[in-house]
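Entry 14. Ran structure prediction on the chain below.
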Amino acid sequence: MATASISSIDTMISSKVGAAPKIMETVSSYRKCLGGTQSGPRDYTAPAHLRQEPKIYRQPSRVALSGALDGGRSAWNLTRMKSRLFARILLACLYSASVAALQSPSASSSAETSVALPQIPSPTGPYGIGRIGYHWTDASRPDDYDPKLRRELMVYFWYPTAKTAGTKGQYLPGAAQMDSLPEIHKIMSREFGNAWAQIVSGEISSHAIDHAPIAKSGVPFPVVTFSHGLGSTGFQYTVLIEHLVSYGYVVASIEHTYTATAIWFPDGRVVMQHNDSPPARLSQSERPKWMMKQVSIGISEGAADVRFVIDRMEELDRDKQHSALAGAIDLKRLAAMGHSAGAEFAARACQQDSRIHACVDLDGGMVPIAALPLYEDNPMMRQPLLFLEAYHSDDRMGGMPDQIAKYKRVREQQLQELPLGSYAVVLHSPEIAHPSFSDVPLLFHGQDGFPETPVVLHNLDLITRFIRDFLSKTLRGEKVSLFDERTSPLPEASVTAYGH
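Output, C-alpha cells:
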C-alpha cells in the first residue's frame, strides 16, 4: 500500500499556511472533558429518570479538521463556496473540521422563508423500529484531559420490532434537556436551524420506540456500528439508520464524545464540542506537525470507540438475564460504517479488528492525502469495503491539479489493495453533496441552498439502496442486482469492483 509521509504532508500544508492565516486560526477542537464518571452498562431512560438538572462540561480540546469532512449542516455551504477549495487542501487531510469562519447562513435568515415541516419518511422494510441507549465507560482508556476520568460514550441501539402503523418517537433523546441550557440552545439552533424548535417539541419525530420488544426471528440479526461526522450526531442519520433496521439489521450508533455537537447523558450532563486553535507558541512550521499528530490521535480514538463497542456487544449478547439484545444479535455478521470523519473511524477499526466482516465508508476520502487512513503500521484492510461517495469535480475537491492527481493515484492504490468483494461507487445524481448521506438536507429542504424534498429523498434512496445491497451481499450472502457485474448499475452511479 502506498503511504504518504508526515513530512510530505507537512510540506504541502506549510506551503499554504502563509496565504491564509485566518483559516489556520479557525481550526477547531473536538475535545472536551467530562465531569464525573459513570460505570455501565446502563440503559438510557426517559427524561423523568433524570437525577439532576443539565450541566455543561468543557475543557480545552484537540484540533479538528476541514469542513470537507464535517458531517453537519455547514458542510453543504462549503461545497457551494469557492473558499471550500483552499480549506480542503489545507485541512481535510487532517481528519475533519470546524467551519467557524465559514458559517452557514444564520437561522434568522432561514426564518424568513416559509417551508413545510420536515418529515422523516416511513421506513419501507417489513420491521418497525425500536431503540435503547447505553451509557458506557471504557475503563481501559483515560480521559484525554483528566487521568482520573475514563472514556465515556452514549451508544444507541436501533433494532427491528413488530411493525405498527403510525408510530412516532423522539428524534433526538434529551433535546428538551439540552434546550433548557441557553448556550446549548444557541448551538443546536445554529446546527438545526428552525428545525431545532420542532425537534424539541416533537413535531419532527423518528419512528423509533424506546425499549420496544425486539422482533422475533428465527436467526439473530446482523449488526452494523455507525459513526457520525464531526460536529454532528448519530441522530442526524435517522433516515439511513431506520431504513437498515426496517430490513432486519441492528444498528449500534455511537455518539463519539467530544466529536459530536452535543451529547446528553442520562445523569443530566451535556457534553459539547468546542473550538480551539493550535497553541500560540507554535511557529508556522510547527503547526502542521502538531495538527497531524492530533489527527492521528483523533482517528485512533474514534476507531477505539468502535472496537470498545464491539467488546460490549459481545457482553450484551451473552447476558441473557439482563440484556434485551441477548441472543438477538449476530456478531459473526458485523459491519462498521461511518460518514465523513466517522468513515475514518470505521475504516481504521476495520484495519485493526478482524471481528468486523464488512466496512462501509461514506464520503470519507481525505483529499488531497488518501482515501483511507494512513499509519506507520501500513495497515491492510481484510474486509470487503464499500467506498461510497458523492461526485466532486476536480475544481471542487480542493487542491492544485498535481495534488488532486496524486490523491487519485493514492486512492486507486489503496482500493487495489482491498480484498475481493470491495467496491467503489461514485454517485452522480442531481444536487448530491457531502451532507446528502445525512438528514441535514431534509431538515433544511428548500432553504439556504439545499434542494427541495423530492431531490433530497431521491438521493437518500440511492444511497440507502447501495448500502443495503452491499450489506445483503457481504453479511447475508445474498445475490444483489447493484453489484452483479453482469448487469449495468443505475445510471446515476459508477461502480468499480476491486479485490484480489
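The mean pLDDT is 80. Will compare against last week's run tomorrow.
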